Amino acid sequence: MSYEEAGRKGGEATSNNHGKEFYQDIGEKGGQATSDNHDKEFYQEIGAKGGNSSNGSNQSNN
């Protein structure tokens, strides 16, 4: 089994075992950790990048 397949299966198992609240909680914890570890300048820099992708294309998922 490849790492990719193992990761996909693990993600599917997690999704099957946890609800929406689980993902909201870990998202909130991740956001708080990012906030604790970065300053205002960090958010200004990522905000300035906006929707620009790293490969130069700016495609929307809409």
From TrEMBL:
InterPro entries reported in the protein's UniProt record: Stress-induced_KGG_rpt (IPR019626), Stress/Virulence-Domain (IPR052590)
Composition bias (Low complexity) maps to 51-62
Disordered as annotated region, ranges: 1-62
Q: Say which domain of life the source belongs to.
A: Bacteria
Q: Name one Pfam family in it.
A: KGG
Bias-annotated ranges (Basic and acidic residues):
1-11, 18-28
- Fetch the PANTHER family from UniProt: CONIDIATION-SPECIFIC PROTEIN 10 (EUROFUNG), PTHR36569
Q: Tell me what this protein is called.
A: Stress-induced protein, KGG, repeat-containing protein
Write down the species: Rossellomorea marisflavi
